[in-house]
Amino acid sequence: MADTTGNKSAKNFQSDVPASSDGFYLKGLNGYDWGVKDRMTRMFDTKSGKTVMLAFDHGYIMGPTSGLERMDLTVTPLIEFADVLMCTRGALRACVPPTSNKPISLRCSTGATILGREMSYECVGVAIDDAIRLNASAMAVQVFIGAEFEHNSLKNLAELIDAGLRHGIPTLGVTAVGKDMVRDARYLGMATRVCAEIGCQFVKTYYCAEGFEEVTAGCPVPIVIAGGKKLPELDALQMCEDAIREGAAGVDMGRNIFQAECPVSMIKAVRAVVHEGLTTAKAYEMYCDLKVEE
User: Taking the model in full, what pTM does it have?
Assistant: First the structure.
């Protein structure tokens, strides 16, 4: 028992100051426990409420993608400027220096490649204990709404969400769009809402030029947009600006960064749009200036 001799009576309760009851700064996440919120805070800037994720998990379905032939050479210079790294556990262990100290969104679904006939036939490929071992800040799983194996992909998502919640790790639902699916607001709105309703803490989806503000409004958790296919740098920056203005909480870009003429300059320009609200014109001017310097 502690010695009570000399203890002072506690009296500094400041009963005139109400207890803080502020909600969490990211929408839809106030009801989660401390571990989930802590990991989300690592990934989403507490001032802007946004994130710039660097995706280089393409190899798990595409092999050595252009720009990622040597991840140790092309990804490493970009790590400093990303808020989150989106990658597989193989790439993480082989190519990402532990000293980089960046949050990891770990690709946890697998089972299909571009050479197969049906890419929706995936399974959970990373056990929760390995995600914990790798100190993942989030687990990412592909969801194929409307595809042949939709049920299987939703089961993968639910299993990862349950496993993550037992250990305070958020799950990122990634809405895949197959060749027979239309990337319009109606489809993307449904796909993102389904992911959120099942329980993932944030969603990755594609941007659509018409009605994207309805997609973000209808999803009760943060949405980050996928970069998709390689665009001219000006167009990619315009997509970033439009998506952020219409409610996106960030971007998860790969090819539009590592396949850019100057990838480091591009990720810096993307950051300026996402976190600082720079216009497309100003960000592109910044990109051109940085490209000359670098």
Answer: 0.92
